[in-house]
Amino acid sequence: MSDVAAEVSRQTGTPIVCQDMPVDQYAHVLTSAGLPAAFAELLADTSLAATRGDWYTDSTGLPRLLGRPSTALAAAVAEALAAGPATAFDPRG
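and the corresponding structure tokens:
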């Protein structure tokens, strides 16, 4: 997530630092926010795997699956900033 923080910092001019938490601490924060413990642990482990680069691929599978080119990080951040602050999260879209 440090690349996301760096891009948001670049586009907003506001310094943002990404600080990774130990997996158990992150899982605790997630359960404190109301997530079931098993799901919180899964998310925390997945986050650690992403940090290690376990999810990296140079495959073109995502654009093929989407049926369009994937969105560059800079463009995704610009779009999110232009949309303004989120008022609520609805996982159904």
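(Above: one complete record from the training split.) The chain is about 60% helix and 0% strand.
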